[in-house]
Write a structure and sequence with these properties.
Blueprint lengths: L1 H14 L14 H19 L5 H7 L5 H34 L7 H5 L5 H22 L1 H18 L4 H36 L3 H27 L1 H5 L2 H32 L8
Length: about 280
């Protein structure tokens, strides 16, 4: 829907003879522009930081052999990125072609004048579902911890007689799904409220991506492989490439941290809640 909306906006603007500006955003100095570009690396890292779910997904496969498990994960990664990368690049290029350097961080705002209200409602609905699904995946560890903590509190407060144990187990299974849904909806709903309430949430997301997601997702795996037994036995060219990639991503993460901190400080005086 983002692709269709951006294409419609591009067609309407070309039909009306309007031209988008593709240069540096007006009013920005070279330093501000550079810091904005640097901060964007942190936002990308935040969006692609999947290190927290990979072990859980890998463990859930249930394969007895390591090679079988690795092959399944390789297929999953290949299939995912064959769809993700072209889609994101197409959206980025179409939205930039349609709106130029004036495109906002929230693309739906730019699409509003060019699509119908019904189209926007469906897009909002899909975006909300997507947000909740991603939140349910990326916060899986937190959900499990909360559930276990509640279970411990429940067990410490109640002592079940042996004759009633079977009945209580059946009741626990019945309420398990409702408990999971309640925890996830409450957790993600509160996170959504905080994200909407804090206008600088994007800057903090970029900072989090720079100092948290970048090392764990794009640097540590290379270091971990090179230090492992397989890495030490790997060809020297592969080890060298891994160190180079780790250095590149470490540099990008450092630039993203500097850019996000700069923008937080520069925009601190203009922040207002829910704006």
């Amino acid at each position: 829907m983002f692709i269709v909306g951006s294409g419609a906006a591009l067609a309407q603007e070309r039909h009306n003879g309007e031209e988008a500006e593709y240069g540096r955003p007006e009013g920005d100095t070279r330093l501000q522009y550079f810091m904005g570009v640097a901060e964007s690396f942190g936002i990308v890292a935040f969006a692609y930081g999947g290190h927290c779910v990979i072990p859980d997904v890998h463990a859930s496969l249930g394969h007895a052999e390591k090679d079988e498990s690795r092959q399944a994960m390789r297929k999953a990664w290949t299939g995912a990125y064959l769809g993700i990368v072209p889609s994101y690049f197409l959206i980025v290029n179409l939205s930039y072609a349609a709106f130029g350097s004036g495109v906002s961080a929230f693309l739906i705002d730019d699409l509003k004048p060019h699509v119908s209200t019904a189209f926007l409602c469906v897009l909002y609905g899909f975006s909300l579902v997507n947000f909740f699904c991603l939140g349910a995946i990326y916060n899986q560890a937190a959900f499990v911890y909360i559930e276990e903590m509640l279970d411990r509190c429940h067990c410490s407060c109640r002592k079940t007689l042996p004759s009633h144990a079977e009945a209580e187990d059946a009741e626990n299974r019945k309420t398990s799904l409702r408990k999971k849904i309640a925890i996830r909806v409450s957790y993600i709903g509160f996170g959504t409220l905080v994200g909407a309430m804090l206008p600088f949430f994007g800057d903090f997301a970029a900072l989090s991506g720079a100092v948290g997601f970048t090392p764990c997702t794009f640097v540590y795996p290379f270091w971990l492989y090179n230090r492992s037994k397989e890495g030490r036995e790997a060809p020297s060219w592969r080890r060298t490439v891994n160190w180079i990639l780790a250095g590149v991503f470490l540099t990008l993460g450092t630039l993203a941290a500097i850019g996000s901190i700069y923008n937080i400080i520069a925009n601190a005086s203009s922040y207002t809640i829910f704006s």
